[in-house]
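Can anyone check this?
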Amino acid sequence: MDATSFGGLQMLALAEPYLRAIADARTDARYIAILGQLAQDFGFRSAFTLEYSDEHLNVRRVLDSDSRRAVWWGEYLDSGLRKSPDYLKAISEQAPVHRADGSRFAGPGDPLFAFSRRMDLVDITTVTVSHDHRVIGIAGLCGTVELDVRQQGALQLVVYSLFAQIRGDRKTGIVTPPEALTPREKEVIALSAEGMTSIEIAERLGLSARTVNQHMDNIADKLGTKNRAHTVAEAVRHRMF
């Protein structure tokens, strides 16, 4: 086996767990969890994806592992400060995986720098996603990390796989991790995860079964889940208690 083949196998080995997770993902919450895990495993602080509509200046969907940026994205997309399509196209042609820092701004007084600094988006590694010579999306990982060739290849493979999955959903909007649970909701979901019924949880916590069920409904609303088992599974997956 030559060095190139060995490097390719290493790249696939890095990407494989994420590719399996993406293939099984069916909800925005799972996509965001995968982004968060990808960022953590590669040494970054957070990760996001932007999917563009047919007219590149329009962003149709944002997924972000950092819940602090939920409102920020709306402000940013309405600000008129985003780079032109030609800028991203040039970046993608230069290097599909590109590390960016503060040097891309005009200076400390650049309004875009102020916007980016607010939400940890000055130092990022970007992966542009292209189709038919057109940029259709971008993934960004926040932090100062030097990736080797093997890691860059794995990251690009994972990002393209993720975009192939989420574009098929045809959804729009800005999505971040679910809203944090209240202390009482954490108690209820933790006991539910142990297999306790609403009546048993109510007796343990000194509540009524109706109140327990209301807490479960509130948790389901935050997670976008359809039934109790799904709610418990997603809460466990997100490590919410």
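Reply from J.R.: I decoded it. The chain has ten helices and six strands.
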